[in-house]
Amino acid sequence: MHRSILAIDIEGSTAAARTNPIRQQLRSQIYRMLTVAMNHAGIAGHWCDPFEDRGDGVLVLMRPVDELPKTLLLSRLVPQLALQLVEYNTGLPDRERPRLGLRLRAVVHAGEVHRDENGYFGEAVDHACRLLDSPKLKQCLRASPAPLILVVSEDIYWAIVRHGYDGISPTAYNPDLRVSIGGRRRTGYVHVPPAIPDTPENRSMAVA
């Protein structure tokens, strides 16, 4: 089955200060934020397969329907997720941020996905997870003040990002990491999403 793939993962989920009740609280937050971001992007729940929990993250598979171009993931869903993270973290008392603060890594890819009674699998899923879990992406997030860092596969970059569709700036995606999948070296393009999409409407509001 061809699917658009989005996966997110919490930074520092195994830190000593994060007890199991806190981990449950953070998991609830990311599911809530993801649902809000999907609604903001106009992504209907029935266009997606059931979410797959990854313990400290979520795997989302989206079906190929005309109403869900991949551009929506990059121009609306991810920036809305970044905005929610900023608002959530800003609302925390300073002393609670080490325990309750949320910073995420995210990946967007697409490809052929298989499913059996145990869940989803296949090279496309492995590709997305390898990009998401790469040490270089973790390093990029640690070095960034932003609460969200995104990596897209080279397939997404060349099919979507490089064309500069509305709300997507190709120069903001950098080929900063490499992973090996199926004996091939693959490039990941790293992006720090703005909390507000870069659209003509928002640019005019900022000028005003």
Describe the structure.
This protein is of the alpha+beta class and 208 residues long. 37% of the residues lie in helices and 26% in strands. The protein is built from 7 helices and 9 strands; from the N terminus they run βαββααβββααβαββα. The chain has helices at 20-40, 71-90, 97-100, 123-132, 135-142, 154-159, 200-207; strands at residues 2-10, 52-53, 57-62, 104-112, 114-116, 119-121, 148-153, 174-181, 184-191. The protein has a 7-stranded mixed sheet, with helices on both faces. A two-stranded antiparallel sheet has the order 5-6. A hairpin with a 2-residue loop joins β8 and β9 (184-191). α1 (20-40) packs across α2 (71-90). The chain is globular. The N and C termini lie far apart (46 Å).
Stretches where pLDDT is under 50 for at least 5 consecutive residues are 197-208
> What is the overall shape?
globular
SSE topology string: EHEEHHEEEHHEHEEH
Cα-to-Cα separation, first versus last residue: 46 Å
Helix count, per DSSP? 7
What portion of residues is helical? 25-40%
Radius of gyration: 17 Å
**Strand order, biggest sheet?**
2-3-1-4-7-9-8
Mean pLDDT: 90
- The percentage of residues in β strands lies in 25-35%
Count the E strands.
9
Major sheet: size, sense and barrel closure?
7 strands, mixed
Structural class: alpha+beta
Secondary-structure topology with pairs:
Blueprint: E1 2-10, H1 20-40, E2 52-53, E3 57-62, H2 71-90, H3 97-100, E4 104-112, E5 114-116, E6 119-121, H4 123-132, H5 135-142, E7 148-153, H6 154-159, E8 174-181, E9 184-191, H7 200-207
Parallel strand pairs: 4-7
Antiparallel strand pairs: 1-3, 1-4, 2-3, 5-6, 7-9, 8-9
Helix pairs in contact: 1-2
